[in-house]
Amino acid sequence: xxxxxxxxxxxxxxxxxxxxxxxxxxxxxxxxxxxxxxxxxxxxxxxxxxxxxxxxxxxxxxxxxxxxxxxxxxxxxxxxxxxxxxxxxxxxxxxxxxxxxxxxxxxxxxxxxxxxxxxxxxxxxxxxxxxxxxxx
Length: 136
Known about the structure:
This protein has helices spanning 16-32, 55-67, 100-116, 122-134, and strands at residues 2-9, 36-42, 45-52, 69-78, 87-91. The chain is 44% helix and 28% strand. It is α+β, with helices and mostly antiparallel strands. A hairpin with a 2-residue loop joins β2 (36-42) and β3. Strands 4-1-3-2-5 form a five-stranded mixed sheet, sandwiched between helices.
C-alpha cells in the first residue's frame, strides 16, 4: 500500500464554489481508482494523506503536488494496511475565519475524529501529529 502525506499552500484562498468543484473531481477520481485518505483545507493550506494500491495514483499525486505551492512531503512510502475506508475532504472557508466559535467547533470536531483513528502505521501517525499543529 503506497501512502503519501503532504502539505501545500494555495496562492488564492479557495471559494466555496472552487472547493466544491475540485472536491467533486478528486472524490470521483479517488473512488474510481480505489484511493482512500483525507485532505484538510484550512487557512489557504491543505494537509493530505493518500493511500493507494494503484501506480497511476502516485503519478497523479505527483502532478497535483506540482500544481500547488510550497509543497512539503512528510511521508512517502509503503505501509501494510489502509487507515481510511474512503477518500474525503474537509474544508473550512477562509472568509469564516473571523467567526471564532465556528472555527473552534470545526477544529474540535476534526481533532476528535482524528483522535479516533487507529494509528497503525507511520504515515497515519505523522498525519495525525501534523493535523494537530496544522489546526492551531
